[in-house]
């Protein structure tokens, strides 16, 4: 087992006097080669310079296979720099996630950035299977559990065994750059849920709208959250900027106005390189002034000389405010503070939602008129195999017709405005959206299908992000319930209602 090394990243980030700089490394497919050599060279130079406190390492970025972040993490650690491993959930189920957490602990790789991840794309012989067994809130809860509890949970094999407590330093991501109210409110609700689940720091999505960056800081201050927030500053080349502008990078917005600037700058002798670096330096200065705890730097075609130039300039600009010069908003963007929405607005609920909600409450709430009879029938069905089958078929028929039900056995319809996330969301997110939507459309079906959580926002009650303690994450689904009756599982206490009460 590796000897614990000093966690420079953690020490820097928890020290409120320091402005922490991290840099994102993107290992490609394969275990070596020129790309990796360049990355290691950059890291060596950064170590001598000392300003970068951690290198974050992506985990199969863009949904494509790449070198595992633990591998490059160990190389970076051996150089004496803190690695910050991205830990995404698109390719691993909960057991693989737990297994990799133990691996990280064994190698003293304790800084993790927890994220759902982009939808899997091309892999060996075609598109990979999207896993998403846990979402980021659920993985953060697992990490929090490993941080604070030493015993394996009740009912698990080996429950008598004590696990070592693991002092992970785990962060999460959020996008303040969504253009629609429905997308943005959900992003903030999910952020607050992630913090409730144990996130210890936050890194924003990359963006170029300075009011949005400011809004994120103001939100955490309004909520009296004492958690370091790191702003993502990305320096794209012109080619990458064009791709981002077309909406081809999940969840990323690069406005037309900024692209036009970059096209004009590209006419200069250096093809706009210095202008791009200076813009990033000004952004860093403005973000520092706003109160960010640090920046998460990234870019393509950056070597250490360019990074060093950029950081030097950011220090010079620190004495002046540069916010207006680097503010590139999307037209018609919704802003939280402009809307002055401190409490949820009262709005008329759609008829369909109201009917579903009424029926649900009468049948499944203990005080509902139909609850006693529904429970009695369900208990009878549990005792008779034939009746059980008929009961399950009846449930399937009703819910398939009404909600496109997939019989997952642990129904969360009531928690998502009576829309089914198992059939409506390609990542099966049950605790709020991923970060991949663009202008309200799903990351997986751009300009075709609205994000499931956007539809849920308009169909049900507005999520309440002003009461932090009311935000709870649904536990992971128990896969032994798949294809069984969720009604029976509810009345027998096997579904998430029953399991929530056990913890
Ligand atoms: S429906 Fe929304 S939450 Fe689900 S994958 Fe698409 S963008 Fe993400």
Structure description:
It is a single chain. The strands form two sheets. An eight-stranded parallel β-barrel has the order 1-2-3-4-7-8-9-10, surrounded by six helices. It has a two-stranded antiparallel ribbon with strand order 5-6. Helix 5 (136-148) packs parallel to helix 6, helix 7 (210-222) packs parallel to helix 10 and helix 10 (273-290) crosses helix 11. The chain is built from 18 helices and ten strands. It folds into two domains: 8-238 and 275-326, TIM Barrel (Alpha-Beta Barrel); 351-502, no CATH class. By secondary structure, it is of the alpha/beta class. It is globular, with a radius of gyration of 24 Å. The structure holds iron/sulfur cluster. Iron/sulfur cluster is lined by residues 425-427, 429, 433-434, 436-437, 442-444, 451-453.
Q: Could you give a short description of this structure?
A:
The protein is of the alpha/beta class. It has helices at residues 8-14, 34-49, 69-78, 94-106, 136-148, 181-196, 210-222, 238-245, 256-265, 273-290, 304-317, 351-364, 371-383, 385-403, 421-424, 452-459, 486-491, 496-502, and strands spanning 20-25, 52-57, 82-88, 111-115, 122-123, 126-127, 169-174, 201-206, 229-235, 294-299.
Q: Globular, elongated, flat, extended or rod-shaped: what is the shape?
A: globular
Please count the beta strands (DSSP E, at least 2 residues each). 10
Low-confidence stretches: none
Class by helix and strand content?
Answer: alpha/beta
Given this structure, which CATH class of the largest domain is correct? Alpha Beta
Q: What's the structural domain tally?
A: 2
Distance between the termini: 32 Å
Global Rg: 24 Å
Outline the biggest β-sheet.
8 strands, parallel, barrel
Mean pLDDT: 92
Number of helices: 18
- Beta-sheet strand percentage? 5-15%
Oligomeric state, counting identical vs distinct chains: single chain
What string, H for helix and E for strand, traces the elements in order? HEHEHEHEEEHEHEHEHHHEHHHHHHHH
């Amino acid at each position: 087992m590796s000897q614990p090394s000093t966690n420079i990243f953690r020490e820097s980030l928890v020290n409120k006097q320091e402005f922490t700089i991290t840099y994102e490394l993107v290992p490609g497919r394969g275990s070596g080669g020129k790309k990796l050599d360049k990355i290691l060279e950059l890291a060596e130079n950064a170590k001598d310079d000392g300003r970068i406190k951690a290198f974050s390492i992506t985990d199969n970025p863009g949904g494509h296979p790449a070198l595992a972040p633990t591998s490059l993490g160990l190389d970076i650690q051996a150089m004496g720099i803190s690695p910050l491993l991205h830990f995404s959930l698109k390719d691993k189920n909960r057991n693989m996630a737990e297994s990799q957490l133990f691996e990280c602990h064994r190698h003293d790789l304790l800084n993790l950035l927890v994220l759902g991840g982009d939808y899997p794309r091309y892999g060996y012989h075609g598109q990979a299977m999207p896993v998403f067994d846990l979402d980021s809130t659920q993985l953060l809860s697992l990490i929090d559990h490993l941080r604070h509890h030493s015993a394996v949970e009740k009912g698990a094999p080996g429950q008598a065994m004590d696990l070592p407590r693991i002092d992970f330093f785990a962060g999460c991501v959020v996008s303040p750059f969504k253009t629609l109210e429905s997308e943005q409110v959900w992003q903030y609700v999910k952020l607050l849920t992630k913090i409730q689940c144990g996130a210890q720091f936050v890194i924003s999505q990359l963006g170029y709208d300075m009011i949005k960056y400011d809004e994120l800081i103001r939100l955490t201050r309004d909520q009296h959250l004492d958690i370091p927030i790191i702003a993502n500053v990305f320096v794209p080349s012109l080619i990458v900027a064009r791709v981002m502008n077309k909406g081809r990078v999940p969840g990323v917005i690069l406005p037309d106005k900024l692209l036009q600037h970059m096209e004009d700058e590209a006419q200069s002798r250096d093809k706009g390189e210095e202008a791009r670096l200076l813009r990033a330096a000004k952004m860093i200065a403005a973000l520092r002034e706003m109160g960010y705890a640090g920046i998460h730097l990234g870019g393509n075609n950056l070597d250490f000389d360019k990074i060093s130039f950029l950081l030097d300039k950011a220090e010079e600009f620190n004495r002046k405010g540069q916010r207006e010069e680097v503010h590139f908003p999307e037209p018609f963007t919704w802003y939280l503070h402009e809307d002055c929405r401190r409490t949820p607005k009262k709005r008329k609920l759609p008829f369909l939602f109201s009917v579903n909600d009424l029926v649900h409450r009468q049948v499944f709430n203990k005080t509902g008129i139909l609850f006693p009879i529904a429970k009695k029938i369900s208990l009878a069905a549990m005792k008779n195999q034939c009746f059980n089958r008929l009961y399950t078929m009846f449930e399937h028929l009703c819910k398939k017709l009404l909600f496109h039900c997939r019989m997952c056995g642990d129904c969360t319809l009531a928690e998502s405005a009576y829309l089914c996330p198992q059939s409506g969301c390609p990542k099966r997110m049950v605790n709020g959206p991923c970060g991949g939507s663009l202008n309200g459309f799903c990351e997986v079906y751009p300009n075709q299908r609205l994000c499931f959580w956007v539809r849920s926002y308009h169909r049900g009650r507005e999520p309440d992000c002003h009461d932090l303690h009311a935000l709870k994450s649904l536990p992971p689904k128990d896969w032994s319930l798949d294809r069984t009756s969720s009604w029976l599982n509810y009345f027998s206490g096997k579904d998430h209602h029953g399991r929530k009460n056990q913890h």
